[in-house]
Amino acid sequence: MAKYMIIGNMSFETTEYSKTWLANGLGFTYVKVFYEIAREYAHSGKVTFSNEYFIRAEESDLKGANIQRTERAIQWAFAKLEEAGLIERVYLNDKKTHRTEIKVNEMALLETLGMKPGQADSLDRGNVRKHIRQQMPAFLKPSKIKSLIRRVNHEKNDAKRKELQAQIDLINDQYRVFDEYITKLVEKNQKYVSVREVNTKSEVSDERIAMLRQILPSWGVKPYMEVTL
Amino acid sequence: MNKIKLLDEVGYMEILLASMSKDDIDNILWHVESFYSKYKNVRNAVLNAVLIKAIQATQGESDFFSMAYLDKIYDTFRTYKVNSAATACTFLENKNNHSYSKKKKTAFVPEWMPEFEELLKNG
User: What's the angle, vertex CA A227, arms to CA A223 and CA B22, rounded to 5?
Assistant: First the structure.
């Protein structure tokens, strides 16, 4: 697991291949945009991205998500996410010339990512939250349990210890459901990545192309020469 | 560089750039990419030979080839057992691989035939 972040009582985790997933052509645009927003929100609690951030690849000074889409597609993705009630854009003026913040609806985020296995499948076909749950390589886990186990070991009062143990058992039951669901998700998303790994663009060298243009007539193919004036 | 070595090392993008304009490549690229990802266990040289064969057949025509056409050519490669770079290279150079060989039939001619023909001419 790559990183460990906290929203409320839950921890937000991302998988190892989430970065390659972002740069892929596959997957919906608004799912990728929302993934980047949720990650930032879990990390710092405040999101102030520009539209350019989502498209840009990482450079020496500037960070970027490297989603390979146009700027219009990202504007459309914002509209789609606002319609579903997941985020809200905040502007300085009424004219909407300058965007100050992207507010995240925390309850909606926890609901969508905390869905149990059957719930996401039973939703409608065009539902935004369904697509987010099925495509996003991230999930939630209850984060309390590590501190609880530490407290049980040090506790000497039997009555208090039993209470703590009951809490741990309750969370462990939740964990079991999550773990089964996560393994399914990982298998599902791995499919998107493995397709792209084969299709990575190989390096194009001008020497080899020049060699090919000499040899191609012997195989019955006319070489194409670019016209230069 | 040797022909066989070049066929093995070259990528599909380089073959397309050497033989087509960029506008034509946009029409085909999806088919070629999905063909290469479908047969990822097959040798690169054989797949390259299939691509060249497809370009050779459709060059100068108004229509482009599709992924189904590449699959069809790959099936014929299989029947002729083209597995390596060397066999693929020889397969591309021989133009009459697909056509059936035609044998001329020679009819039986008896010994007395020329004498009989002369008789007919003289009356």
Answer: 65
Name the residue range of residue A98's domain: 4-203
pLDDT, tens digit, for every residue of B43-65?
Answer: 889 999 999 999 998 988 888 89
Cβ pair A199:B36 closer than 8 A: yes
Residues of B in contact with A228 (CB under 8 A): none
Q: Is B101 on the interface with A (CB under 8 A)?
A: no
- Residue A208 in any domain: the answer is no
- Which residues does chain A have within 8 Å of residue B18's beta carbon, measured at their own beta carbons? 209, 212-213, 216, 223-224
Residue B35 near chain A (CB below 8 Å): no
Note whether residue A156 is domain-resident.
yes
Residue A217 maps to a domain? no
User: Could you tell me if residue A210 is inside a domain?
Assistant: no
Considering only CB atoms, which residues of chain A are within 8 Å of chain B? 195, 198-199, 201-205, 208-209, 211-213, 215-216, 218-224
Helices (H), chain A: 18-23, 29-44, 51-55, 71-83, 106-113, 117-121, 128-135, 145-154, 158-198, 206-215
A220-229 pLDDT tens trace: 899 988 766 6
Is residue A167 very low, low, confident or very high in pLDDT (cuts 50, 70, 90)?
Answer: confident
pTM: 0.49
Optimal mutation site among A201, A208, A225, A226, interface B, most CBs of chain B within 10 A:
A208
The full 3-state SS of chain B, as one line of letters, equals CCHHHHHHHCCHHHHHHHHCCHHHHHHHHHHHHHHHHHCCCCCHHHHHHHHHHHHHHHCCCCCCCCHHHHHHHHHHHHHCCCCCHHHHHHHHHCCCCCCCCCCCCCCCCCCCHHHHHHHHHHC
